[in-house]
TrEMBL record:
<feature type="domain" description="RGS">
    <location>
        <begin position="293"/>
        <end position="411"/>
    </location>
</feature>
<protein>
    <recommendedName>
        <fullName>RGS domain-containing protein</fullName>
    </recommendedName>
</protein>
<dbReference type="InterPro" id="IPR044926">
    <property type="entry name" value="RGS_subdomain_2"/>
</dbReference>
<keyword id="KW-1133">Transmembrane helix</keyword>
<keyword id="KW-0812">Transmembrane</keyword>
<feature type="transmembrane region" description="Helical">
    <location>
        <begin position="125"/>
        <end position="143"/>
    </location>
</feature>
<feature type="transmembrane region" description="Helical">
    <location>
        <begin position="48"/>
        <end position="72"/>
    </location>
</feature>
<feature type="region of interest" description="Disordered">
    <location>
        <begin position="434"/>
        <end position="464"/>
    </location>
</feature>
<dbReference type="InterPro" id="IPR016137">
    <property type="entry name" value="RGS"/>
</dbReference>
<feature type="transmembrane region" description="Helical">
    <location>
        <begin position="191"/>
        <end position="212"/>
    </location>
</feature>
<feature type="transmembrane region" description="Helical">
    <location>
        <begin position="92"/>
        <end position="113"/>
    </location>
</feature>
<feature type="transmembrane region" description="Helical">
    <location>
        <begin position="14"/>
        <end position="36"/>
    </location>
</feature>
<feature type="transmembrane region" description="Helical">
    <location>
        <begin position="224"/>
        <end position="242"/>
    </location>
</feature>
<feature type="compositionally biased region" description="Polar residues">
    <location>
        <begin position="434"/>
        <end position="452"/>
    </location>
</feature>
<feature type="compositionally biased region" description="Basic and acidic residues">
    <location>
        <begin position="454"/>
        <end position="464"/>
    </location>
</feature>
<feature type="transmembrane region" description="Helical">
    <location>
        <begin position="158"/>
        <end position="179"/>
    </location>
</feature>
<dbReference type="InterPro" id="IPR036305">
    <property type="entry name" value="RGS_sf"/>
</dbReference>
Length: 464
């Protein structure tokens, strides 16, 4: 016991390591599940990199605790440099990076839903800026070298280090409090409060563990118990702290408990937009006239779906998809800014942001008007972009569509549905004798039934 308490390798140490490995595996599985199981394309920009950074920081945090707190003995001690693992990897690249990425997400939510505009500072600039105190603190400790051979530091160092931890949790609380009144649709607020509670609890455990290790180094059993609790708490922290609801709302609906198909196939469906993505069977059939303006034809959902399939076959479907998404946005009432902002943000991330998955070809001036808007809920936000793309579609796709198999198939389906409805309407007519206003021999549809009925009645009367 005395040997493993100092050098590591106690049974409780291996149990904690296995627990940490399981939590990390669950975290990684939760992160890659949508992309592997549902073949979802990888997003671009901060929507992809912030979750990646969270996973990277979680791995660093757990690995640094295992190596720096002597969970097992290394044969080559150079791999156990206290200033690499206990200072840099555990601080700026671990807990500091984890908290900073979550603060970045909350900062984005604050600007998007409270200020109703995109954040003025790009993520790749904002994240390093708020990480600077951690980097400065690690550099200062690296110069002063207060750690002993067991990677422990004196009590006078614990207070400023834990103050830095508490400061970042407090910053997260401030931003979360600022967005508490927003009626989020994808559990963003719940995930934020959960992360705050777990991180605050973890800091309390870590403070206790550090104090225990420093003040009671001679109590070996307490040393073993404190590092066991330290790693287990950090493992729970990284698993519960991870969230994609802020950066990828639709993907956040997939969890380890939901192995069925995606609950929502589009943002419009997720936001409860009426008839989003649906082709209703009772939708009125209209004749598709090529001489009609394209703007009017695109309002017809069946035509829009057929035209979208044709555009996708030409590898130029992003413009029609953009039109469809903006059309769905127009169904949302103006007095519902939260849902309008969700939809606008979704459209910007997928179609407007440079390098987006389905970036549309619009002018730089028009793109900047959208990206620098002061109101994401503005009903005219995408009007100029739509006008440009409609003109582009008219010059390219529209001319080829009328001679394509997609249009011929659409005409045939429209004709068949129209004929089928006529037959269905005739079949639904009730021609029973009770409801017919024509009686007896004056009713040409009732003569046979009437004669059969009369014969039956006469036979019945003769029996009497």
């Amino acid at each position: 016991m005395a040997r493993c308490a100092v050098d590591g390798g106690c049974p409780s140490d291996y149990i904690a390591i296995v627990f940490a490995a399981v939590c990390l595996a669950l975290l990684i599985f939760r992160w890659i599940l949508p992309y592997v199981m549902y073949k979802i394309p990888l997003p671009k920009g901060s929507r992809f990199w912030i979750p990646v950074i969270q996973v990277f920081a979680s791995l660093n945090l757990l690995l640094s605790i295992v190596i720096s707190v002597s969970f097992f003995k290394f044969k080559r001690q150079k791999w156990r440099s206290c200033y690499i693992w206990a200072v840099w990897v555990e601080g700026p690249l671990g807990f500091g990076l984890l908290l900073s990425s979550r603060i970045t997400q909350t900062f984005q939510l604050y600007y998007i839903f409270v200020k109703r505009r995109l954040p003025p500072i790009k993520t790749h600039i904002f994240l390093p800026l708020i990480l600077l105190p951690w980097i400065s603190g690690a550099a200062f400790i690296n110069v002063k070298k207060p750690l002993n051979y067991r990677c422990h530091m004196g009590p006078r160092w614990i207070i400023p280090i834990m103050t830095l931890h508490i400061l970042y949790v407090a910053t997260l609380i401030v931003f979360t409090w600022a967005v508490r009144h927003i009626e989020f649709r994808f559990d963003e607020l719940r995930d934020l409060w959960k992360g705050i509670i777990v991180s605050a609890f973890s800091i309390g455990v870590w403070v206790s563990a550090y104090i225990t290790n420093e003040i009671h180094e001679e109590i070996l059993g307490l040393q073993v118990a404190s590092r066991f609790l330290l790693l287990v708490t950090a493992s729970i922290l990284v698993l519960t702290f991870f969230s994609t609801s802020s950066s990828q709302p639709l993907l956040s609906q997939i969890s380890l408990r939901k192995r069925e198909a995606l609950e929502y196939d589009s943002m419009g469906h997720a936001l409860g937009i009426p008839d989003s993505g649906l082709l209703l069977q009772r939708e009125p059939e209209t004749v598709i006239d090529p001489n009609e303006p394209l703007e009017k034809l695109l309002l017809n959902k069946r035509f829009r779906r057929s035209f979208m399939a044709f555009a996708d076959s030409c590898l130029a479907g992003e413009n029609v998809h953009f039109y469809d998404e903006v059309h769905e946005l127009g169904k949302l009432p103006l007095d519902d800014p939260v849902r309008r902002i969700y939809m606008a943000r979704h459209i910007i991330d997928n179609y407007i942001t440079p390098g987006a998955t389905m970036e549309v070809n619009i002018s730089h001036r028009c793109r900047q008007e959208i990206l620098t808007t002061s109101d994401l809920a503005d009903p005219n936000l995408f009007n100029n972009a739509l006008n440009e793309l409609i003109q582009l579609i008219k010059m390219n796709l529209a001319k080829d569509f009328w001679s394509s198999m997609f249009f011929l198939k659409l005409k045939e389906e429209t004709s068949m549905r129209s004929n089928g409805r006529d037959l269905e309407q005739m079949a639904s007519w009730n021609l029973s004798p009770r409801l017919s206003s024509v009686q007896g021999t004056d009713d040409p549809f009732n003569q046979e039934q009437f004669s059969k009925g009369s014969g039956h009645d006469s036979t019945h009367d003769s029996d009497h």
